[in-house]
Amino acid sequence: MIIGELNPHLRLLLGPGPSPVHPRVLKAMSSHVVGHLDPDYLAVMDDCQQMLRQVLNTRNRVTFPVSGTGSAAMEASICNMIEEGDTAVICVNGVFGERMADVAGRYGAKVIRVDAPWGRPIDPQDVKKALDAHPGAVLVGIVHAETSTGVLQPMEEIGEICRKHGALLLMDCVTSLGGVPVEVDKWGVEVAYSGTQKCLSCPPGVAPITFSERALGRARERKGKVKSWYFDVTLVEKYWGQERVYHHTGPISMSYAIREALRVVLEEGLEKRFARHALASQALRAGVEALGLSMFAQEGFRTPTLNTVTLKPGVEDGAVRRRLLNDFDIEIGGGLGPVAGKIWRIGMMGHGATQANVVYLLSALEVIFRQMGYTGSVGSAVAAATRVYAEAVS
Amino acid sequence: MIIGELNPHLRLLLGPGPSPVHPRVLKAMSSHVVGHLDPDYLAVMDDCQQMLRQVLNTRNRVTFPVSGTGSAAMEASICNMIEEGDTAVICVNGVFGERMADVAGRYGAKVIRVDAPWGRPIDPQDVKKALDAHPGAVLVGIVHAETSTGVLQPMEEIGEICRKHGALLLMDCVTSLGGVPVEVDKWGVEVAYSGTQKCLSCPPGVAPITFSERALGRARERKGKVKSWYFDVTLVEKYWGQERVYHHTGPISMSYAIREALRVVLEEGLEKRFARHALASQALRAGVEALGLSMFAQEGFRTPTLNTVTLKPGVEDGAVRRRLLNDFDIEIGGGLGPVAGKIWRIGMMGHGATQANVVYLLSALEVIFRQMGYTGSVGSAVAAATRVYAEAVS
């Protein structure tokens, strides 16, 4: 079989990620490659570290993009902190909390789960109870914005509880970083990781991570080596730090990409960026409700970056999403696990969180809903969303 | 500090990798991103698998690029095959054999080393002796082309020995794939992995891997889960296979890159490509010897893709390489570990293995050698290399 020229459809990416990539990032990625120990690449590494610290709101020295996707960074954070037989409290209210529990278990942790129903936040008091019951627990793992449910977890109180109990706080901020405030140092987070393909609007392939000095101390004082050589932070930090000890060949082009993505983020400014995400989400919500659908995640605990929508009876999940993709080139996400077929996940992330995208999606949905006989009226959703934007400027 | 526009030097990459990237690959990487479950991306995944099977000479169903660099693929191959307490025979004659032994040990293997001096191949009889002494050994791990020494390991006899002993053969072909013949099925290799940034001339960031059905059986029949969730082939194969079960978000842009790189490789044709590498290496060697330097790796066991050169007394390693980089924009590699300061590693890899690059490098070295007073005569190295090319066409 002859493999032809690459020619993917030009999609509007409004699912749970990847999100639309800024053209400047695509351009940076096509820059000529230099060696992984070239002075020019070392400067790129330094730039990435410096900008990541700003975006994560941390002074942690060891802050860099892992050479893998967000799931690789989850693994890197856990495998460095957990030793066989450690007790770890893992908060689970969706797929990514489940994954964290799975990964911690694989590396030998005795996992104490703190559960909450899908669509609801973790109750900080449940974390406190778990730590009271297991005073030797070494860490608490939690997802800031759960990509499977759209729940945004308040972090302050949980950070305070961990501090009092002396447990390390490990946070997944894959779907929050760059779209809502992420305050690593202020919240007392000791290890945090993210992805690039959400609100940083960079293609997937590298993933931000940060370790506090206390977390690094824990990695260095382990009884045995970290199981993973690739993710062993005690080795990797010597390549990213001033020693520049070769570890593995860095993913040069993806480093170019995240560097440019971070420049775009910081040029816009974090506050302005958060406001843009919040407004897009608010407008989207107004439109979705005008369509007769409702929001899935509990009010007051919704991340604007990933909007979960409960389908009303009769709306055919697969058929609508297929039409969106095939007739409108729009991707949105379906539900995972227990909510498969029951919810949609609509990303308003990074470069994609715009008025243009909100109204085009709603307009497309109104056309499809009419075609499929779900509703007689057309226009109320785009109107509702536009009113939100109009109010914001008046 | 303001982070400015990305503007790396335009280097000629003749070190141990990354190698020069074909402009078509850079262009493919800047293509717009689609979702990781988009039909267009699933087709890209299929294309990559199909072309990787051709390049690796294997019919293995589970053949795909790992979402990480070559070292990630090393880890992925070992962590799936090794369980706590397994005995593994690891061949060590350079940095990457050492790394393999380290990784296997981290995942709980009792490592039986088969050593050979740096610059020399592994003696197949030593592998046989190790397997005779440890009949329960589950695998033999070996590096096909050792990036730290330039040694090319003959694989047929070792494959035969493994077959007779019932041990799995696990092969690193990072620096050989695409530059010299790699025959996974014919040699009886059960797990093989490579990198992209060597003779495939793709930026680093993904890494080919292949598992035989026997190797997959071993992964499925483990007593415990694979320690690494990210690299667990029993999960990853369901995303790359027809089930399309979401595992992690694929590195879309890097998938575009390897797809285009493989197209370039197969358009040229493997035989023609191997001949081009061999000729460039032969010409380089003629020039290097005309400079009064000698080859480091044992004759008859040299990979043309990475040429190791022993410095003669008086030649200052660091000073020459700095001049090459700063005055000529050429990167070559220095020695690692015990041969640091004593050898150079000159890559003739993929898109970089050309007459133009050979003569420019030699010409630059002749100028530097004259400047630094190492030699009085200038011109003999480029002449020697050019004669090799002239003979090849006559």
What's the CATH class of the largest domain in chain A, please? Alpha Beta
Largest sheet of chain A: 7 strands, mixed
The N- to C-terminal Cα distance of chain A equals 59 Å
Total strand segments of chain A: 15
What is the subunit organization of this protein?
homodimer
Helix segment tally of chain A: 13
Walk me through this protein's architecture.
The structure is a homodimer of 394-residue chains. By secondary structure, chain A is α/β, with parallel strands linked by helices. The first copy, chain A, folds into 2 domains: 17-267, Type I PLP-dependent aspartate aminotransferase-like (Major domain) (Aspartate Aminotransferase, domain 2), CATH 3.40.640.10; 269-393, Aspartate Aminotransferase, domain 1 (Alpha-Beta Complex). Helix content of chain A is 42%, strand content 14%. Chain A has helices spanning 23-29, 39-56, 70-81, 95-106, 124-133, 156-165, 213-220, 233-240, 252-268, 270-290, 317-328, 355-371, 380-393; strands at 12-13, 62-66, 87-92, 110-115, 139-143, 145-146, 151-152, 168-172, 191-193, 207-211, 294-295, 306-310, 330-331, 333-334, 343-347. Chain A has a 7-stranded mixed sheet with strand order 2-10-9-8-5-3-4, with helices on both faces. The first copy, chain A, has a 4-stranded antiparallel sheet with strand order 11-12-15-14, with helices on one face. In chain A, strands 1-13 form a two-stranded parallel ribbon. In chain A, strand 3, helix 4 (95-106) and strand 4 form a beta-alpha-beta unit. In chain A, helix 1 packs antiparallel against helix 9 (252-268), helix 2 crosses helix 9 (252-268) and helix 10 (270-290) runs parallel beside helix 12. The radius of gyration of chain A is 21 Å and the shape is globular. The model of chain A has no long low-confidence stretch (mean pLDDT 97). Chains A and B meet through helix 1, helix 2, helix 3, helix 4 and helix 9 of A and helix 1, helix 2, helix 3, helix 4 and helix 9 of B.
